[in-house]
Automatic annotation (TrEMBL):
Name the UniProt record assigns to this protein: H/ACA RNA-protein complex component Gar1
Transmembrane segments: none
GO biological process: pseudouridine synthesis; ribosome biogenesis
Length: 89
């Protein structure tokens, strides 16, 4: 597994999710339902949806049930995900 820093800007909150804008998106960088971690590598939730323009999409992150939005400052936090190493054929 490889750790990937997500280049996301916090936009706001929907009813159930936190909405971010990806600054630089590479295909295969992350997938829907990929776990999301804070800088201490604690899981805070998972990617619920990716939508909008292909080059700079919006990313919806659903927080884990034990994380509350008021406990977490998204504007100053770095977020990470894990990516499986691709198999060489």
């Amino acid at each position: 597994m490889t750790w990937i820093k997500l280049n996301l800007n916090f936009i706001g909150t929907s009813k159930k999710n936190q909405i971010f804008r990806s600054r630089a998106f590479k295909k295969g960088q992350f997938n829907i339902y990929s776990p999301v971690f804070d800088k201490k590598m604690n899981m805070i939730g998972h990617i619920k949806d990716v939508f909008g323009p292909v080059d700079m999409p919006f990313v919806s992150i659903q927080l884990d049930t034990n994380i509350k939005q008021v406990d977490f400052d998204f504007s100053s936090q770095s977020l990470f995900t894990k990516m499986k190493k691709s198999r060489k054929k």
